[in-house]
Amino acid sequence: MTVPIDQTLLLTGFGLWGGETCNSSWEAIRDLDLDLPENWTVCRRQLPVDWELGPPILRDLVDGTIGAAVCFGMCGGAQIRPERLAVNLNDRTRPDAREALARSDHVVEGGPPAYWTTFDYQSLVDELRSAGLPTMESRDAGDFLCNAIFYKLLHERKCRRATFPAGFIHLPHLEPDEGLSLETLKKAARICIDHAIGLAIRTESK
Questions:
Q1: Which of 71, 75, 146, 192 is the catalytic position?
Q2: Which of 6, 25, 40, 186 could form a disulfide bond with 72, CB atoms 3.0-4.6 angstroms apart?
Q3: Residue 189 and residue 29: Cα distance in Å, rounded?
Q4: Percent of the chain surpassing pLDDT 90
């Protein structure tokens, strides 16, 4: 009889920066009810919008128990944006929450130029749209902290030779800041999480 291996669902959102009073990426997941498979637990972490602290914290969260990882960030507009790519590039002109700038042009010195999401991208977009959620396709996660976290996640996954599904989703601001309702954002987050877990289970069964 095969004993199921304990798995961790890693979820991250961001803290405050730039005068924001809340960050939708954290609000959508911090108390989100989840129906996890047997032997799965969840690790939720609010990451600081900080060039020096954010990526190392993410790196330390990626261990041998991770079964799936979904990172969330906040974006402008009123559409959910699953990201295709994480690029090895930092915008050194954009200050973080401490008003500090990135010290390097690269997220990881000597790392690959980019990593693809390991989600089934088009399938996830279709799932979100089928649920009636405003969704747009997006090439990459930009060059600020959202991208740095996404790149660091995928880089650690590669360095560990891990196979867990990993992706990044940008969520709009909350209403009334030209965004979406918290209920809508939670619905989107749950679909993305279920997508990641489904991929993980299918990988395990092969």
A1: 146
A2: 25
A3: 7
A4: 90
Pairwise CA distance, residues 130 & 19, whole Å: 35
Alpha helix (H) ranges present in 89-144? 121-130
Report how far residue 79's alpha carbon sits from residue 171's, in angstroms, rounded to the nearest whole number: 7
**Residue 83 annotated to the active site:** yes
The DSSP element (H or E) to which 82 belongs, if any, is: strand 81-87
Residue 146 annotated to the active site: yes
Question: Is the pLDDT at 4 greater than 80, yes or no?
Answer: no
To the query of whether residue 71 is one of the catalytic residues in this protein, the response is: no
The answer to whether the CB of 109 falls within 8 A of the CB of 164 is no
Q: Report how far residue 145's alpha carbon sits from residue 51's, in angstroms, rounded to the nearest whole number.
A: 7
Please pick, among 27, 155, 170, 173, the residue that the annotation labels catalytic.
170
Condensed to tens digits (0 to 9), the pLDDT of residues 53-90 reads 999 999 999 999 999 999 999 999 999 999 999 999 99
Q: How far apart are the first and last CA of the chain?
A: 17
Candidate list 83, 156, 173, 192, residue with the active-site label? 83
Q: Shortest CA distance to 117 belongs to which of 97, 99, 96, 141?
A: 141
What the block records as the tokens of 158 is 């590669």
